[in-house]
Amino acid sequence: MMLAIASGKGGTGKTTVAVNLAHAFGRPLQLLDCDVEEPNGQLFLPGDALGEEIVTIPVPQVDESLCDSCGECGRFCAYHAIVSFGAKALVFAEMCHGCGGCAKVCPQKAIREIPKRIGVVEKRKSGDIVLLTGRLDVGQAMAPPLIRAVKECLNQNMPAILDAPPGTSCPVIVTIRGADFVLLVTEPTPFGLHDLKLAVDMVRELRIPFGVVVNRVGSGDDRVHVYCRRENVPILAEIPDDRRIAEAYSRGNLIVEALPEYRDLFADLAKKLLKAGNGGGG
Amino acid sequence: MKIAFTTSGSDLSAPLDSRFGRAPKFLVYDLDSESFEVIDNQQNLNAAQGAGIQSAEAVARSGAKALVSGHCGPNAFRVLVAAGIKIYNSDATTVAEALEQFRSGKLKEAGNADVEGHWG
Known about the structure:
The complex is a heterodimer.
Chain A: E1 2-6, H1 14-24, E2 29-33, E3 48-62, H2 72-76, E4 82-83, E5 90-91, H3 101-105, E6 111-126, E7 129-136, H4 143-152, E8 160-163, H5 170-176, E9 181-186, H6 190-205, E10 210-217, H7 223-230, E11 235-240, H8 243-250, H9 255-258, H10 263-277
Parallel strand pairs in A: 1-8, 1-9, 2-7, 2-8, 9-10, 10-11
Antiparallel strand pairs in A: 3-6, 4-5, 6-7
Helix pairs in contact in A: 1-10, 4-5
Chain B: E1 2-7, E2 25-30, E3 35-40, H1 42-45, H2 51-61, E4 66-69, H3 74-82, E5 86-89, H4 95-103
Parallel strand pairs in B: 1-4, 4-5
Antiparallel strand pairs in B: 1-2, 2-3
Helix pairs in contact in B: 2-3
């Protein structure tokens, strides 16, 4: 089973839910931190580092002695990562998505691809949990190839929880694609509701079964609940607005360990997800 | 010789736009014939990425050998230099004023990009 945890809005509690849920499952599983621009799952799951893999994407390199400035490469590239008009082709590697098309269309065979490092996948073990963390290098803009590299490390025979980045754009789509179920974490505020609607549209478009966790319940209004009722979106858990949760989080502690009264909440959520992931719900 | 100016309008009295990559239009003035044409840049105004690069390409295709704008980012700068286009930064309020600055030799050629990418 592959379970993705996403949200529209940032800071709603994706990582909180991911790490506590991983713990609550009480069985060996993998946790993939796909929030590669700011991975923080490892702060809550201390453990032994098992290794690190460098991730690269192929970017074009132009042999200027062969380039006749025909411009085919620039016309092909949808991202303007290579341009040529009246002068030798210029490469803008930070915009390159690594498709290799420019090298293929070059009539002079003046372009070859060279690997460019974009980040790493770190592997560590914390109790029963194998944590795979994608970490994009500072200054790099291309998160999706790194997220794909994290997902390629998945052991298909072990359940996995994927902690997605916020938003509803490419990095999130890459993360949740292929998931059996998506958990959308939101908060009962106008911002939370606005971005939840975008996230619901996204998962419906991708036809992935989903449910909602409302975090900090009691802090805002009831519009998220009204929306979920109207749209027939199941609310699978409600985490109260409890200052002690924020305090535990700020110390890097798991809620299920620091505040045992919340164990049932996460255990119950895990049970519902196992049922939903096996064909029910959504 | 042709000079490109960034602008939001379509004549010499229009304001000089301080952005290059996401300027709404380019006014390309021909010093020899004392006439100008206006190139629409709307497509790049809304581009997700690579606006500076595409805008530089549009200016190069117009035949301009100089560009006068408020600011120019690093990617656009590389393309413009490769295309042999000289870059001048100006704080003039209108295209006419910037043209006058250019004619009287008051503008200095920019040696580097003067802003980071995505500044405005």
